[in-house]
Amino acid sequence: MLYKGGCHCGLVKFEVEADEVIECQNCNCSICSKSGYLHLIVAKSKFKLLQGEESISTYTFDTGEAKHKFCKVCGIKSFYIPRSNPDGYDINVRCLDPQPKKVIIEEFDGRNWEQNAHKLAHLSKE
Question: Which of 67, 84, 68 is nearest to 35 (CA)?
Fold first, then answer.
């Protein structure tokens, strides 16, 4: 299925190919829990930025490997390049419009990142 999504103000828009039933992760790490991010990790080939490249800023921390992309105007992080899957994109399910008919949320222990990151590696494979 092809989903549309983007930031709050509408400057950043994308489309992503994913299953009709979305399986996503709710991570308890500091940045995800504070932002309410629901993770849908896909291969790079399944993501297309439609508009807003010039409106995107990047935030990194700790190792600097994850590239957290957010809209410079409204501040919403609708997607990013995750440290666990640098060959893919991580889409915030809450930024899809319309929302999927069914979402299955799995808990992910990101507070203990080093012990659990390997559990996500398969998600960006075609």
Answer: 68
